[in-house]
Amino acid sequence: MHNKRIYLSLPKQSGSEQKYIKNAFETNWITSGGPNVEEFEHKLEKYFEEKSFVTALNSGTSAIHLALILLGVKAGDEVICQSMTFSASANPILYQGAVPVFVDSESDTWNICPQFLEIAIQDRIKRGKKPKAIITVHLYGNPYKVEEVHAVANKYDIPVIEDSAEALGSSFKGQKCGTFGSLGILSFNGNKIITTSSGGALISNSVAVKNRALFFATQAKDKAVHYQHSEIGYNYRMSNVCAGIGLGQMEILHKNIEARRETNAFYKELFRNIDEVTVFENLNQDFFSNCWLTTILVEAQNKKNSNRENLRMAFEDANIECRPLWKPMHLQPIFEKHPYYGENTAEELFDKGLCLPSGNLSLENKNRIKEVVLNFFV
Ligand SMILES: *Cc1c(COP(=O)(O)O)cnc(C)c1O
């Protein structure tokens, strides 16, 4: 039996990516920046409707790094970050020599807890340093409590960097994720809802910020005929070839969201009568998710040792890729010495949680997944 592997999240092609790439080659724009990049930015700006300005970059990680630079985060400054996230949300804080301060999740959105956020801010101020920025995350495409979280940030006048890497196409009360923070970031890595093979973007609300981001992303060149530099520059611009992939991908963004939401509905039905498993569900209609990844919690019950890890291994035996939820940053060896505010919500989610294959599932693949689940629980 050699079943083909079912992956967690694979790219899907529209078929027109090659057309834009071919154009880049025919016009010899095999460069960083160029017409495809500008068109891709324009498409994204139109997609976000609200007054949004987009700078296309070579990764989501570089977008977060530039966001910190644009907000003036320097060595020794403190930056609050949701603990339950992928490491790329927090690593750029260290690139700047700043100090990450991690905050727990809440159990209903799995995202940053507004109460612990406020406790963290108050305590850091009491200890002598007001945090310079807050990095929030819409984990797995599920919006955080935008109103509560931003009310706290506004109360203390701290800018928010909205990590929307997993949430392109998600929205809260009809407003698209990525547009709530002082700055928003996107990722077009190969596993995200659309891809440029590798890429990211910074979303801001003024052309001045967009141009400032562009300046830093293209080596911080001063106005001069020779190469002249007064500030540290970075090589973070998106490649014109990669932007061609992005233009092709934009044509199917809505289809990818539909497909992932359909996959999510399949899992909800599959687990409906299995008491040990709860499929993550958003609080109410205000929270619209792109369902980038469908996630579940597995309660260990006596029967057959039905815990998360055993279920993951049962999937693995059938050559189906699943992954535990992201391990919280405050539990990571590289970050564990930094301050943390919260209880053990994120930790508990990590212990019980599993991400399931969430791309476009064929009927055959759905049946393979169903078989593993029914054999395991029933
Ligand atoms: C993927 C991801 C990033 C980083 O994006 P890259 O384009 O891979 O650099 C940042 N934050 C979160 C939450 C992500 O999932």
UniProtKB/TrEMBL annotation:
SUPFAM superfamilies the UniProt entry points to: PLP-dependent transferases (SSF53383)
Keywords: Aminotransferase, Pyridoxal phosphate, Transferase
A Pfam cross-reference name: DegT_DnrJ_EryC1
Gene3D superfamilies recorded: Aspartate Aminotransferase, domain 1, Type I PLP-dependent aspartate aminotransferase-like (Major domain)
GO molecular function, one term: transaminase activity
Source organism superkingdom: Bacteria
PANTHER family (UniProt xref): DTDP-4-AMINO-4,6-DIDEOXYGALACTOSE TRANSAMINASE, TRANSAMINASE
Record family assignment: Belongs to the DegT/DnrJ/EryC1 family.
Protein name: DegT/DnrJ/EryC1/StrS family aminotransferase
Species for this entry: Flavobacterium procerum
